[in-house]
Design goal:
14-stranded antiparallel barrel, 20 strands, 469 residues, Porin, mainly beta
């Protein structure tokens, strides 16, 4: 039985979201790298400042710069504006996809929370605990989205629990280590073109192409089949940090966050229309039921490691400048293997090429202390996309390199309580997509060809609160 179509369509979805798909992206690829409102205000350039316990995420060595017991918490509202511009879309028979629209308001807004605690054990040791959302997405296209055979929706949630310990060797050298328990919860949806499934089933049964074309045409007016794939998993990793403080107002940090091996476990659930031509006795329909049979699903994956170099320097009592450079090893995502075994097809599997490349993020910023209560921040960031080729782009991840400009403010109510505000504007380059069945294997009964581009900009509104106990 030829099950390639089932493999390809389910694989496209699970492949994308298994690696942290996000439309409302803070960072290119699939991670949220804004995990502090103060850091957001400088476009992540001020991560070496270690002004509050969010240093747990950026560099745990910075914990030793915090005195007593401290807490910071906040959230960033993500306001996404994204449109898809269609050039062409055809099904596997070369016919235009119909019905078809450009997806509607598919990128959904969200609020991304975070929270951190620090406890100074003694003059040398400081403990910290962080909870944050490293990845996430909420995308839902209209039912008639022209690219629905490549992906029609994703709901991706995550949580990272990050206990950490900072060690102060002396006034100049500080070290930090943290452990990460990372949870992923993914749900995704895709439509399936039944004429293509019927055509592939007919070929698998030994039918000649001209006859199979006629068989496929009988399904032209049948509604799409749909698939929902879900999966969850816990994975574990670590992060390390070093901070050099040549003087009180200068911090130079080097941080490493490890890769995390994961294997998502879940199910693939297919919905097939009840009014298939030929009824229950049709061998074609029996083949469709086999190809689109419900099953368990699993996907081994490795999320990428990153290395960050950052600098914070106070020019005087009021002005400070800062910079950050981060390298992420996205080339770990070259191929995605998804296992979907059934009783009839115990070795059902799909391998899909993604060909991601390693990427860099750079940012610069400044802060200005207006008075004892107000501190203002600003920053600029350029973030490189790991997507190397439009032919491997995904409808559930219209990613592209981006620029980010940010402004922020801190208001110190009293020595123990501070509010933080930040606004960021992110502009993505046009993200081209040019998917065709040649991206997979020849004669696989693919979803056809989709060519177009995504145009996206994002507003981020952040608010945070810090308290010293």
């Amino acid at each position: 039985m030829n099950t390639t179509l089932c493999k390809v369509t389910a694989g496209t979805l699970l492949a994308a979201t298994s690696y942290g798909v996000q439309q409302a992206a803070f960072a290119s690829g699939y991670e949220f790298d804004v995990q502090s409102i103060r850091a957001q205000g400088s476009s992540n350039s001020g991560t070496a400042e270690a002004a509050d316990p969010s240093t747990i995420f950026y560099n745990p060595a910075g914990l030793t710069l915090l005195s007593g017991n401290q807490m910071t918490m906040g959230g960033t509202a993500v306001d996404v504006h994204s449109t898809f511009n269609l050039i062409s879309a055809t099904n596997s028979n070369g016919q235009s996809v119909y019905p078809a629209d450009t997806g509607g308001t598919y990128a959904k807004n969200a609020v991304i929370p975070h929270g951190y605690l620090s406890h100074q054990i003694n003059d040398q040791l400081t403990f910290g605990l962080g909870l944050f959302v490293p990845y996430g997405s909420k995308i839902s296209y209209d039912d008639n989205f022209v690219g629905r055979y490549y992906g029609s929706g994703v709901d991706f949630k995550s949580l990272n629990i990050n206990p950490s310990l900072g060690f102060k060797l002396n006034e100049r050298h500080r070290f930090g280590v943290g452990l990460s328990a990372q949870y992923l919860d993914i749900g995704l949806n895709q439509s399936q073109n039944l004429p293509a499934v019927a055509y592939g089933t007919c070929l698998a049964g030994g039918g000649p192409p001209n006859i199979c074309q006629g068989v496929a045409s009988a399904y032209a007016n049948v509604a799409d089949a749909k698939v929902n794939i879900s999966g969850t998993n816990w994975g574990y990793g670590f992060n390390l940090g070093y901070m050099f403080t040549p003087n009180e107002g200068t911090h130079i940090g080097l941080a490493y966050r490890s890769f995390i091996n994961q294997t998502l476990h879940g199910t693939a659930q297919f919905t097939i229309p009840s009014n298939l031509p030929g009824g229950a006795t049709s061998p074609i329909n029996a083949g469709i039921q086999t190809a689109l049979a419900n099953s368990n699903a699993s996907n081994p994956l490795t999320t990428p490691e990153s290395v960050t170099l950052d600098v914070y320097h106070e020019l005087n009592t009021r002005w400070a400048i800062m910079a950050d450079m981060t390298w992420t090893r996205n080339d770990r995502l070259q191929n995605i293997v998804i296992n979907m075994p059934t009783a009839q097809i115990p070795n059902r599997q799909v391998t899909q090429t993604t060909a991601w490349q390693n990427s860099w993020r750079t940012s610069i910023g400044t802060s200005f202390k207006v008075n004892e209560q107000w501190t203002m921040r600003s920053g600029y960031m350029y973030d490189q996309s790991p997507v190397a080729d439009p032919k491997y782009a995904l409808t559930v991840l219209p990613d592209a390199s981006r620029q980010m400009a940010s402004f922020g403010a801190s208001y110190q109510i009293d020595p123990r309580n501070t509010f933080d505000l930040a606004y960021s504007y992110i502009k993505l380059k046009p993200a081209s997509i040019n998917r065709t069945d040649d991206d997979y294997n020849n004669n696989n009964g693919s979803p056809g060809t989709l060519t177009g581009s995504y145009h996206t900009h994002v507003n981020l509104f952040g608010i945070g609160y810090s308290h010293k106990f």
